[in-house]
Amino acid sequence: MLRFLLLTSLAALVLAELEPQPRYLEDSVEGRVVGGEVAKAHSWPWQISLQYKSGSSFYHTCGGTLIKKGWVMTAAHCVDSARTWRVVLGDHNINVQEGSEQYMSVSRVHIHPNWNSNSVAGGWDIALLRLTNDAVLNNNVQLGSLPPSGHVLPNKNPCYITGWGRTQTGGQLSAQLKQASMPSVDHKTCSSSSWWGGTVKESMVCAGGASESGCQGDSGGPLNCSVGGRWVVHGVTSFVSSSGCNAIRRPTVFTRVSTYINWMNGVTRPELLANPVLLQCFHSWG
After folding, report:
1. Beta strand spans in the chain (E)
2. Secondary structure (3-state) at 105
């Protein structure tokens, strides 16, 4: 149930207009969605399910990362329409209430001011959600670790994408959280002419590609990378090629989190709002 960035048929276009879903994380047109595996329950405790309200029910639409007790990081394209949102923490099977979930409404959506909904390739595909209540941290709900500002992953750094995305083209969302190994691809390689070319900016991270793709992960969800013996969320799932998630030399593209650390600090730290000098500094840093 994902809205597509690059549509391959009139039928797909109609479907996209009818379904209030994110547009950019696209399934393979030939049904070769790279599978991954079901994750051990609560092994990625910062992963959240972002859900929108339709009628009297809520439906999963994107992933995200709990970065502070009252804040979630996700993709801008997931939340750039006016809807009633909620965040589910501590979930594993989104179709069953297992007793570990925390349900939080969203009081405010902060989309990066440079985001252009007509051009995901332009970058800035990041947003922060202010929860109405703080999360209760426990074994099932933890904060995701973020990288230092400006940090860049080396080529082939071990990473995993996680999410409840489709298991096959036109199929259903995975009920259980899945994971797939997606080593990072450095910017020099990913932006070369035989790969993504100029589509990929330095503010993005590439990972996977061909047999190493893992497109079942939802838009907005984390790219979890092993750095210094711990898991660090280096990416926010953004878009893939129209020719399929496992297209040769077209790895999945993520928003590079380290580019936006200062912007996120400016949004989530209220003391900055009371200090115009500090706030101006954060804005100038981007």
Report:
1. 37-38, 47-54, 57-68, 71-74, 85-89, 102-111, 127-131, 159-163, 178-181, 184-185, 204-207, 222-227, 230-239, 252-256
2. strand
The burial of 18, by beta-carbon neighbours within 10 Å (0-12 exposed, 13-18 middle, 19 or more buried), is given as: exposed
Give residue-wise pLDDT tens across range 250-286: 888 999 999 999 999 999 986 655 555 655 554 444 4
- What are the two backbone dihedrals, phi and then psi, of residue 128, each rounded to the nearest 5 degrees? -120, 140
pLDDT digits (tens, 9 = 90+) for 181-235: 889 999 999 999 999 999 999 999 999 876 555 554 478 999 999 999 999 999 9
CA dist., res. 227 & res. 86, Å (int): 31
pTM of structure: 0.83
Residues assigned a catalytic role: 77, 125, 219
CA dist list (Å): 267 to 165, 216, 247, 257 = 29, 30, 36, 14
